[in-house]
Amino acid sequence: MQIFFHICLGILIIALQTGASVCIPAIARPCDLMIPFAIYLALYRAPDEGLPVLVVSGVFMDSLSSGPFGVFLISYLSLFFVFKKITRWVHIHYAVLFFIVSFLGLLFENAICWISALFSGPLVFRPGKGLAILAVQAVWLIFTLPFLFMLFEKYFRINDRFVSGKSLFTIRD
Amino acid sequence: MFSKKRLLVAGAIFLIVLNTIVFSFYYLHRPSFKSAAVYTLFFFLGPVESVFSYISSNTVDLFEHYVFLTGVAAENKTLRNKLAAAHARLGECREKIKLYQRVRPFADLVAKSPDLKFLPASIVAKDPSPWYTAAMINRGDKDGIKAGFPVLVPDGLVGRVTAVSYEYAKVILITDPNSSVDALVDRTRARGIVTGEGGGMCRFDYVLRKSDVRMGDMVITSGFGGIFPKGIPIGRVTSLIRRNSGLFQQINVTPCVDLDKLEEVMVVVNFEVAGKFPE
Q1: What is the pTM for the complete model shown?
Q2: Beta strands in B66-179 (DSSP E)
Q3: Contact B200 A67 (CB under 8 A)
Q4: Which residue from A39, A142, A161, B71 lies 20 to 30 Å from B87 (Cα-Cα)?
């Protein structure tokens, strides 16, 4: 049941970013908001919760994109496994580190896009354009990440309380 | 000789006249008495009158500005509501004017192309990837949309439908790296393939070096291959490199359509697609 809610949240994020991008010119296209979600799932949630969400979200994103099918799916799953592995050796469960890790995730997804462009697609790879896209996405990430982090924290807190059968909202004295 | 009554009346008249004359002469020679009386009267009465005047004027003000304003407050509320409604109406009208200005060229396009049947659609989402340029439109299988249908706006070619669901369809734009359009230079009929570059620009490939192409030339669809109707504007040549060696020229084309600002498009629903589009 909770995986269903996680998937709904993922689809909501995808709908938000694809719907909102109609009003945003291509040059200022925002970053993929699913990257922080994938990293959050990798850092703070169990694999059986995170993987189904990322598989469904990846397929959704690939369906909406006109790029080669599987780029987003591979990106999300790679992000999940890489950061899941890193948390075994390095303690990165702090909120501040989440920001740094999200930037690494952004780089990671762009690298996968570049590799797919170089090897499979007809996309002409230009380093200058790639860096410009990355810079714009990094700016978007700076402004959206705090809100996303708060959203994820709040959502998963409510979700956990729902699963454990407690009252959904904490009453403070 | 005179009765007693007549004597009394005459005496009274005489006294009144005399009195008047005496007092007249008296005041004529001593005018300061009146001035002193008036001065004294004003000295005492003036402040009292000022106080009364102040109180009365403030009382009037109080009534005018506070007591009578109970009705004005209600009137103010009504007027504010009317103003808000007028503003809303003005906004609606402005939006309708903008919509009309946007839609008018579409009507002209339909009138100019009697052979083609158009279906208007709105862009509801865009490609999530910054590397590719696709868009989602709010028309799908239920509206008769099929993969391969050309998508236009009055300014020129937008792209073609690549995937269809029940209510929505995905349109690949001409600037997408996966898009290729068989094209001609309008002026010289030099032929080539317009391919998307992903950054709002297109390349015009496979144009022979000997072909006459100049900056600013209009590039249109050729109609070959049966994917797009013939003669739809694609863009203008904005850069051109003709090397001494090699078979082809390097030509960049800027699309006629501002694909970033697309809101409404027209899907050509009766154009025969020559081959089945690979989904």
Answers
A1: 0.68
A2: 118-126, 134-137, 150-153, 156-164, 169-173
A3: no
A4: B71
